[in-house]
Amino acid sequence: MTVVIFHLFIFVYPGIQNGAYLSSTGWKSIMCVGPLGFLFAGNAAVCLFFILSGYVLSYPSIGNAEMKWKLIAATIKRPIRLGGIFLFAVCLGCIQDFNHVSELVTFFKNNCMIDFLMNLGKIANNPLWTIPIELIGSFITFGICFLIGNWNKYVRMSLLVTLALCLNTNSYFPFIFGIIIADLSKNWTIQWFISHKKIISILLFIPAFYLFSYPHFLYRVYLDTPYRDVTFIAAGYSMIGAMLMFVSVCSSDYSQKVLSWRPLVFIGEISYSIYATHMPLIAVIVGSVLAILKFILMPTDIAFLISSCIGLPIIVVIACLVDKYVDKPSIRFSAWFANGSIDKIHQYVDSMKNGVKRICKARSSSIGNSFPTIEN
Q1: Are residues 182 and 110 in the same domain?
Q2: Second label for 352, Cα 20 to 30 Å away, from 62, 85, 277, 313?
């Protein structure tokens, strides 16, 4: 929802993104900085999204030796589960703006297939640039859990921290951080942290809120510095804010109780549908209402408020329909396909085992016939 609100405002007030309103007077200037900047922290929200993915996808299997087949099934499911809404949202973006079709055709002619697939969402529907990263990050997460998930926890944590440090310039760093927090939450008992987690949560939340609210446009000034390739700097303070915010919430029973409030859970259940479809819907629904209101000479601020109040509920309703008729069928199909694939893999493995047993038995019998027995 943070990303939706951010894109909704910059649709009418692009200066919020580039800092043009920072030196102005009025309500737009205070929207650029904290604490209201928290509502427009789209960059930090994406960082938090990747951390959450690493945490959620790894939590069931990290430290569990009996999850190998489930990890294989989850890996098979993931492209189908993400792909249903992804393709729907790409089509929606092309319908909203036919220029995207020609852009996709041109990009396809001038680039390889991998580059085309990685940029397909970004060209047709800009927020979808995160989905290829999410997919690859999911594969990395499942792969780590498959390979070292049941190793000694000290060795495993050392490897995870080393990997996080090696990937600190990479978009997949937050996935590794999410795995680390999942491992610590599930398999480690740190007594002093448990005893003081309320205080720790509060102490982390204060800087997390500030860094999370740090003006989105200001992080770009770091891109021309020698530190531009360091994730903590290149992402501005957003990544650090997202990391601290996530640990703060994980440490706070109160925060988890608030986030368990039914309306927020409902938004969470349809969040992928909202995220994937909101950009073209803002352009069509909010843009149309706004154009009508401005045509009758209504002030921009009032027209924006009215069009937002009309557009956001419609976007949520459409997201519910997309969730029901696109996402849920994708999830069911992914489960059916993965289960069928796992059954085939099981059959293949069993046939290989039986074949090896037959070969070994045949060889042992031939050896027994070639040499004298102990009795002889």
Answers
A1: yes
A2: 62
